[in-house]
Design goal:
Keywords: Oxidoreductase. This is Oxidoreductase. The chain is α/β, with parallel strands linked by helices. The protein has a single domain, classed as NAD(P)-binding Rossmann-like Domain (Rossmann fold), CATH 3.40.50. The protein has 12 helices and 8 strands. It is globular, with a radius of gyration of 18 Å.
Length: 321
C-alpha cells in the first residue's frame, strides 16, 4: 500500500460504478479516475445543472470517458427510491461518497436531522435498493462487486449508543434540536457509516456473497464541505478560517480521494476494512486507519441496522435467510 497513487488503479474496463456526490470534490476526482481506467461511471448528484456540468468537465479531462449523470437527492427518500428502483444493468462499485458536514440544525425532506439523514440514512436506503444489482454482477478479473462508504476521522467525535437508538424519534430528529451540536451530529453520522459497513460486511459473509463492503476516509482534504456550514449561517470569520485551513494545512482533493479509490479498486481489500491517509489519519498515501471501538460493536451495529430499516422503509431482503 506504500506510495499507492491513482496510477496504481487496476484496469476498470467493463466495470460500472455509481459515485454519489460526484459533481465536485472527492467524488468528482474518484469518478474521473475510475473513468480514466475504463469504468463506466454514473455521477449521482442532487443538482442536475452541477451534475451535468461535471459530466462535461470529466469528458473534457478524459477524452472518450463513459460517464453519465443520475439525479439523486440523499436528503429525500423518494428521490433515493426513484434512483434505486430505476437502475438497470450490472453494478460493480457503489461509492457512497456524498455528505454534508457541521451544518446548522435542519431536517431532510422526510424529517430526519440533516447530517444523519443524508450521510447515513440516504446511503443505507440507496445501498439496499441497489443491492440486487451488486449481488447479481458477476466478478471478473477485478474481482467481485464492492460497496465503499466514505466516513471521516471526525467519527471519533460522536459515538452512537443503544440508549439513543432506543428512541427512534430522538435519533431521527437529532434530539429534536434541543441539544444539537453540529460537530457531534456529524461525528455520529460518520460513526453510523462505519457501523453500517461493519454489519453489511457481516451479512454479506453470512449470505455467502463475495461482495466486499469497506470504508475509507480522506483525512483533511480541501473541499467545499468545510465552508458550507459557516456560509449557511453567515459566520464569515469561521468561513475564512476554514478557507485558510484548506489552503495551508489540507491535502488536495486528488490526494483525499485516494483512500476511497484504494478501497474501491485495489486487490485484496478486506471486508469491513477502513482505509485513510497514512500520516496520523491526516494526509499521505492510503493505509489502514484507526477507528473507534464503538464502530465494531456488533450489538450496536445490529440495532442501528434495524432502526435504519424502520426509518427508511428499505429492507435488505436479499440478505435474509
Amino acid at each position: 500500500m506504500s506510495g499507492w497513487s491513482a496510477h496504481d488503479i487496476p484496469d476498470q474496463s467493463g466495470r460500472v460504478a455509481v459515485v454519489t456526490g460526484a459533481n465536485s470534490g472527492l467524488g468528482y476526482v474518484a469518478a474521473r479516475e475510475l473513468a480514466r481506467r475504463g469504468a463506466r461511471v454514473v455521477l449521482a448528484c442532487r443538482s442536475e445543472a452541477r451534475g451535468r456540468a461535471a459530466v462535461e468537465r470529466l469528458r473534457g479531462e478524459v477524452p472518450g470517458a463513459d460517464a453519465e449523470f443520475g439525479r439523486l437527492d440523499l436528503g429525500d427518500l423518494a428521490s433515493v427510491r426513484e434512483f434505486g428502483t430505476s437502475y438497470e444493468g450490472r453494478l460493480d462499485l457503489l461509492l457512497n461518497n456524498a455528505g454534508v458536514m457541521a451544518l446548522p440544525y435542519g431536517t431532510t425532506a422526510d424529517g430526519f436531522e440533516t447530517q444523519f439523514g443524508v450521510n447515513h440514512l440516504g446511503h443505507f436506503a440507496l445501498t439496499g435498493l441497489l443491492l440486487p444489482a451488486l449481488l447479481g454482477t458477476p466478478g471478473g478479473g477485478a474481482g467481485p462487486a464492492r460497496i465503499v462508504t466514505v466516513s471521516s476521522m471526525a467519527h471519533l467525535l460522536g459515538s452512537i449508543d443503544l440508549g439513543d437508538l432506543g428512541d427512534l424519534g430522538d435519533l431521527a430528529s437529532g434530539n429534536s434540536g434541543r441539544r444539537y451540536r453540529r460537530w457531534v451530529a456529524y461525528g455520529r453520522s460518520k460513526s453510523a457509516n462505519l457501523l453500517f459497513t461493519h454489519e453489511l460486511a457481516h451479512r454479506l459473509a453470512a449470505h455467502g456473497s463475495g461482495v466486499v463492503a469497506a470504508s475509507a476516509h480522506p483525512g483533511y482534504a480541501a473541499t467545499n464541505l468545510q465552508t458550507a456550514g459557516p456560509r449557511a449561517e453567515g459566520r464569515r470569520v469561521a468561513e475564512r478560517l476554514m478557507e485558510l485551513g484548506n489552503r495551508v494545512v489540507a491535502q488536495s482533493a486528488e490526494a483525499g480521494a485516494l483512500p476511497a479509490l484504494y478501497a474501491a479498486t485495489a486487490p485484496g481489500v478486506r471486508p469491513d476494512s477502513f482505509t485513510g491517509p497514512s500520516f496520523a489519519m491526516w494526509r499521505g498515501a492510503p493505509a489502514p486507519s484507526r477507528r473507534a471501538p464503538w464502530t465494531t460493536d456488533d450489538a450496536v451495529a445490529r440495532r442501528l441496522w434495524a432502526v435504519s430499516e424502520e426509518l427508511t422503509g428499505v429492507s435488505y431482503d436479499d440478505l435474509k435467510s
